[in-house]
Amino acid sequence: MEFDDVIHTRRSVHQYSDADIDDETLYDLFEDVRFTPSSFNLQPWEFLVVRGEDLERLQSVAYGQKHVTDAAAAVVVLGTLDPGDHAERVTRDLLEKGYLPDEEAAEVRLDTVDGLADADTETRRVWTVQSCTLAAMSRMYAAWGRDVASCPMGGFDADALHEAFDVPADYEPVVIVTLGYPADGAADLERPRKFRRPTEEFVHFDDFDPVARESPTPADD
Ligand SMILES: Cc1cc2nc3c(=O)[nH]c(=O)nc-3n(C[C@H](O)[C@H](O)[C@H](O)COP(=O)(O)O)c2cc1C
User: What is the pTM (predicted TM-score) of this model?
Assistant: First the structure.
């Protein structure tokens, strides 16, 4: 599928066929995810692939959302809260390939990452969610390019997910993505596209002047 088609025809799909996604196809999707950009190139993502009966456990932490068990697989995108996890390898690579001029620059970079690692939890959460969210999107496009439909899900209880899947506290559950071949008609392009805000409404050239808000701003309260 052409990339333009991938973007324009992707839908969040809730109904999946009974067909499994073979391991090779599933694995290939992650090969594509490798090329997602990330903050400092630190690649803070981990992907927990849930299949078979384990999907019921995932469904229970996702407020019972039906499509979790209808899917062939679901991927829990987990973001490390420790920016130092891969910093040494990433920085050495930058130095070897000439992206950093010298050892001193590499040390400066590692110190910057150390500084981030010492930041409060909220700062590290934002840091990891930014990159992991992009990885999740890469994954959904990679999937749809191979006819595998998906649905991103933020509706889950993160504490319950930690417990149900033994996820250590220093990994943030960012998003769940269900995956599967769509059931007949579930990704039907004949169905009207859900509302999208017009481009000119949210693009602000030169000055930021937001318009068309439906709810009062906090300052109006
Ligand atoms: C961060 C995020 C969280 C979402 N959470 C859920 C969810 O919990 N359950 C669900 O069915 N869809 C969820 N969605 C899917 C949206 O409802 C869907 O993307 C939106 O309605 C637009 O539809 P489309 O993706 O088909 O264009 C989520 C999407 C995003 C980006």
Answer: 0.94
